DNA sequence: TTCGATGCAAAGCCTTTGCATCCTG
DNA sequence: CAGGATGCAAAGGCTTTGCATCGAA
């Protein structure tokens, strides 16, 4: 994620006539450059340090707003809860079955996923999501 | 799905020392050849016709058991609820944004998704899941 | 007869909603 | 000042769990 996420999103909120509150800024700062794909609760827990009174509902609301602005994407990798990624460029996710970490995988999607012509004829693909499940380097060396 | 799903799974239940109950048979029959990717509630509703007293918990339990036996796979396509697929061969899923239907897409996974060498070195991929989101033929013609 | 399966209800989680209050613009 | 944002609590929806009873083997 390039530097300036927080500032850019603040500008976009203003553009949209939405308000820039201290809570939102705190959430944005936490997301800025964050590649850990936190859940709502993860974000709430962390932001609580700087902002002890922030409510879970505010975190939910803010993430919904950010998702609508496409400044964050939700990834449904974990059946129990949503995770969020401030990097909205198209990329894959690799989920470790052991530690449940989520790593970004940047690869040329167009070449990585070729939709067969037969499928393209009966389904207009707007978006392609790829999840790789397996074992990350940390866990495989720890196990070995 | 080839013919014989119900019979095969019944045999596997017996093999594992698990019991073949009328409820389980009813669920298996409903899943046999089913390509609609039903949710737990969908299954419960349908099976209730033949079996009015079956409880939701039983459907949940049975699906958990079947998933452990790998005779059904859960697909997390819908953030609100799990969907189940009795076809456990590797394949993709195409989700229609309009009608929310889920279609199976059989295509050569190996060629469709090439994992970059750089990724393969830091992550051992066991399973690849591809979701195509877009608009199905029905909905695109209906809209046009 | 045995031990897993069932059914019911309650509890658990994650998420959404309602509403009075707050505060940004 | 006005209207969106916040915080709290309650409600919602999906799933799990506890437990007494049932029934397949």
Topology (SSEs and partners):
Two copies of one chain form a homodimer.
Chain A: H1 5-15, H2 22-31, H3 40-50, H4 56-68, E1 73-75, E2 83-85, E3 92-96, E4 102-105, H5 109-112, H6 117-122, E5 123-136, H7 137-143
Parallel strand pairs in A: 3-5
Antiparallel strand pairs in A: 1-2, 3-4
The first copy, chain A, binds a DNA duplex (25 and 25 nucleotides) through residues 14, 17-21, 23-24, 39-41, 53-58, 60-62, 80-82.
List keywords for this structure.
homodimer, Arc Repressor Mutant, subunit A, 2 domains, three-stranded mixed beta sheet, 43% helix, DNA-binding
Report on the structure:
Two copies of one chain form a homodimer. With 144 residues, chain A is of the alpha+beta class. In chain A, 43% of the residues lie in helices and 20% in strands. Chain A has helices at residues 5-15, 22-31, 40-50, 56-68, 109-112, 117-122, 137-143; strands at residues 73-75, 83-85, 92-96, 102-105, 123-136. In chain A, α1 crosses α2, α2 crosses α3 and α3 (40-50) crosses α4 (56-68). The radius of gyration of chain A is 17 Å and the shape is globular. Chain A binds chain B through residues 74, 76-77, 79, 82, 94, 96-97, 103, 105, 107, 111-116, 119, 122-137, 140, and chain B through 74, 76-77, 79, 82, 94, 96-97, 103, 105, 107, 111-116, 119, 122-137, 140. β5 (123-136) of chain A pairs antiparallel with β5 (123-136) of chain B. The first copy, chain A, binds a DNA duplex (25 and 25 nucleotides) through residues 14, 17-21, 23-24, 39-41, 53-58, 60-62, 80-82.
């Amino acid at each position: 994620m390039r530097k300036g996420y927080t500032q850019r999103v603040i500008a976009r909120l203003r553009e949209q006539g939405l308000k820039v509150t201290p809570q939102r800024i705190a959430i944005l700062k936490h997301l800025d450059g964050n590649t850990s794909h936190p859940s709502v609760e993860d974000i709430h827990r962390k932001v609580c340090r700087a902002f002890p009174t922030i409510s879970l509902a505010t975190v939910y609301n803010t993430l919904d707003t950010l998702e609508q602005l496409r400044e964050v994407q939700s990834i449904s990798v974990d059946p129990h809860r949503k995770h969020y990624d401030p990097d909205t460029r198209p990329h894959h996710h690799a989920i470790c079955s052991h530690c449940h970490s989520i790593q970004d995988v940047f690869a040329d999607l167009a070449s990585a996923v070729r939709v067969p012509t037969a499928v393209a004829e009966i389904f207009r693909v707007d978006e392609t999501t790829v999840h790789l499940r397996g074992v990350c380097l940390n866990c495989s060396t720890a196990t070995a």
